[in-house]
Amino acid sequence: MSAAEEKVDVIVSGAGASGLAAAIALARAGYSVLCAGVSDTRPTGRTVALFEGSIRTLRALGVWERFAEIGQPIRAIRIIDDTGSRFPVPPLTLRAEEIALDALGTNVENDRLIAGLIAEAQALPGIQLTEAKLDSIAFTCDAVRVRGADGQTISAPLIVAADGRRSPARTAAGIAARSWSYPQTALIALTTHSRPHDGFSTEFHTRGGPCTLVPLRATEASPHRSSLVWLMSTAEFERRSSLDDVALAAELTVQTRGRVGDIRLETARGAFPMGGLHVNRLAAARIALVGEAAHAFPPLAAQGLNLSLRDIAQLVATLGTKTQTRDIGAATLLASYERARRRDVALRTHGVDVLSRSLLTDFAPVDVARGIGATALRMVGPLRRAVLREGILPPGPVLPLPARA
Ligand SMILES: Cc1cc2nc3c(=O)[nH]c(=O)nc-3n(C[C@H](O)[C@H](O)[C@H](O)COP(=O)(O)OP(=O)(O)OC[C@H]3O[C@@H](n4cnc5c(N)ncnc54)[C@H](O)[C@@H]3O)c2cc1C
What we know:
single chain, alpha/beta, FAD/NAD(P)-binding domain, 9-stranded mixed sheet, 11 helices, binds flavin-adenine dinucleotide
């Protein structure tokens, strides 16, 4: 930030995937943007499956070309019940061609996604990126004024809170949030294996949570690769933490029933304790919440960032392209953003919560209900396609941006 107080159209608090994508979308709509926060570009063994709806948004923003070559298309999702329930759930495969797509989405390594978004943001003249975290955020009736850790102040008619689950911007605006935890930890790593994944993402639903292998693009060193997201009870996580990589990979090969052959860990393991977050408002005067500042849940069915990109598309659709006359921080305008996003956010947060808890319990009626649901999806094509469309390409706003090649 420069020495004198500056004014911009929008301050984005947070420079994770949501903050960077929001900054790019707002700049493309003609707004001047300050995006503040530290981005994590370390290779962490984490990936993100971006579904077709997100790919279309990123394409409209002109950034998809950066990821198309490094991501691995996901052609199908296969779900295998491994709960040992007395009411077995039949295997289910959801294929892209059922909804007339070549792929359901693309799996991209997180660090490469963030690096690509940073490169795009740096190339756009409307965006100032600063690594200074925001120390103070104060609201008046016609502006929000922030002070960075470097002591500079800057004001704008609107702040976009994209600063994660503990969102300082959300707290400063007095928006209440409720968070909860699940008795689970996700163990993650990139893996290599002896047999091809054939573009399949495979989820083994266990009593500890799903163990998912999401296909990754081949490298020269490893022709067959997948990213692992393995949810397990805290006790199992502690036990597996004491295993060396070879022993852990052997357990993983057994858990995945040898579907991709023998598995080896390609990276160090990471761990994420599982939790959820619900906010009582998605916007108020001078502030709009996007990404994990607005919602959080466990990584089941890969919904998190996909949902965040729909927040961003809706926000820009609500604000429209820059005009000199419109107050983009006005409570009435932002209330329409909130109304447009409420259903989608509630559906994903509660849907993932129900799915998570239904796996953790061995209460017979819940197992029966899961079995009936999976059987119906297997047998009834129109239902299966409707569910697939809702997960992969739900109806959403069209970005008010010029079409890009
Ligand atoms: C194991 C795992 C697998 C996942 N897989 C998928 C998937 O396949 N598909 C999918 O769609 N989603 C997936 N997700 C979810 C997805 O990764 C998250 O939804 C997404 O990363 C959230 O990004 P965010 O930018 O909203 O939040 P964050 O990544 O938490 O970023 C918040 C940012 O705010 C910054 N910040 C904090 N305080 C301040 C401050 N005072 N001032 C300025 N900046 C601040 C932080 O430095 C950080 O950069 C997965 C999640 C996990 C854990």
